Amino acid sequence: MTDAVTYEQDGGVVTLTLNEPDTRNALSPAIIDAIVAHVATINADLSVGCVILTGAGEGFSSGGNVKKMKDRATVDRPMTPTETRRYYHEGIQRIPLALYNLEAPSIAAVNGAAIGAGLDLATMCDIRIAARSAKFGESFLRVGLLSGDGGAWFLPRAVGLSKAYEMTFTGDFIDGDEAAKIGLVSKVVDDAELMNEARKLAQRIASHPVQSSRASKRLIRDSQHVPLHTSLDMAAANQALVQTTQDYKEAILAFSEKRKPKFTGN
Q1: Do residues 144 and 244 both lie within one domain?
Q2: pTM, rounded to two decimals
């Protein structure tokens, strides 16, 4: 039995690979459980400085499984509204909460299609890099649905409100070049170079003091929802914390001594 999401660590970089290519990595219960569990593992492990999220096979993630949607829509006794609400809370909505609270910086390496909830999954990562074959679509209206997994929160923050409305209301698919143009991804690379580029960037990120990079991520994330004076207060509090770490002291010494630092996560 294969893992629904594989976990590979190389130094300070963890690669999480959605591993159900037969469904183009549709977000199954097994994938949901695995992502949530892996995030908990990473948050507890200060050796992890960056996380790459990608998909096995030809696609990043096709989002929801349309066959299973059809089965649910045509049963004799469909779920009640209360049951449907619980189904989302206890199912796919665990992913955005987990990835929002992922402490390590994250990169989505988008190979092939990122459709519906698959697109939303990519927007839950801090940075996105796309292969030239990548396709993106906020396609829920094509199947009479809306984004139930946080896309209404994440997508406007990635591309702006007007473009998020356009992508939602049209359901149009866009390629990697258009995704880069609208700010959905940072970079588009040849398919064969996607993981190399993602790993190079992840290694650069992971080379910094882990506690400082995690605190920086929290500060940027939380500053989106508070007034300036509160953000400044959070910055001062986090500075007070990171300046007590051994890695901070090592960074200062290495810089002054013109040598490469040796960070321990402490």
Answers
A1: no
A2: 0.93
